[in-house]
Amino acid sequence: MLEKLRERLQAHRPRRVALRLPEAAVLMPIVDRPEPTLLFTRRADHLNTHSGQVAFPGGKREARDPDLLTTALRESREEIALPPECVELLGRLSDVVSLHGIRVTPYVGLIPPDLPLTPDPTELDTLFEVPLALFLEDRRHHTDVIPVDGRPYYVPNYHVDGQVIWGLSAMMLVELLAEGFGQSVSLHREPAGRLCYFPERLARIQQRATS
Fold first, then answer.
1. What is the domain range of residue 123?
2. Would the pLDDT of 83 be above 90?
3. CATH code of the domain covering residue 82
4. Helix ranges restricted to H, the chain
5. How many domains does the chain fold into?
């Protein structure tokens, strides 16, 4: 399964955002277990923004970062003590724009199991893994319908052992599932199951592509 994922992501041509925006990058770490998992973080409750939210390790690009992959690996080292040399890069996904106007570039990486990872308590409450099978079998709790510029985005919402995976992280997951695993899932096609409607978003969170 992971070898096929590597091939598909290497052939994928991710979209790039054309807007001039502050940049950030995240790492989507796949743990190389007999039953592979995805590694997530939960932001600390004491933070002023995004407190308690589930996310992938990552953060804003610094002036000293030569590229966004460096940003993703540096932030992963700082946030969860993940050594960059332990990450096998599988590929990049399309840029997404957060509600705060930050362009976020996701990278997919394979990491060994049972590394001594530790969340930085100044930023994170915990780390946890979710079996890839949960996402491949589309075991979403419900779908958040988020209108952006008059167009609905169907964003899956997953509940796993008390954790909620939604929003930007779930949008990245949709592309990973569609492009990396060939799953029939899309942000632009209404799925079966319960829908939860949100008001129109003022910020543009859609994936904007250059020609």
1. 2-197
2. yes
3. 3.90.79.10
4. 2-11, 68-80, 132-136, 167-175, 181
5. 1
